[in-house]
Amino acid sequence: MRWRSMTETTNTVLDTAPEDTFYAAGWTISGVATLATIVAIWMFGI
Q1: Could you tell me how far CA 19 lies from the centroid of its own chain?
Q2: What integer pLDDT is reported at residue 1 of this predicted model?
Q3: What is the DSSP letter of 14?
């Protein structure tokens, strides 16, 4: 069995966080779609 050293690199992908603009845009689109659904149900009485 070979012990890994702390200096060895691993196969993990670093810096995989989404960019802030895409993150904010996704939440904005989701919020607008949710509000539009609520308003549509309220207005049309579906």
Answers
A1: 10
A2: 53
A3: P
What pLDDT, on the 0 to 100 scale, is given for residue 33? 97
CA-to-CA dists, residue 8 to 2, 3, 13, 14, 21, angstroms: 12, 11, 14, 14, 33
How far, in Å, CA of 22 to CA of 8, rounded?
Answer: 33
pLDDT band at 22 (very low <50, low <70, confident <90, very high): confident
Report the candidate in 30, 7, 37 with the shortest Cα–Cα distance to residue 46. 37
Do the beta carbons of residue 46 and residue 40 sit within 8 Å?
Answer: yes
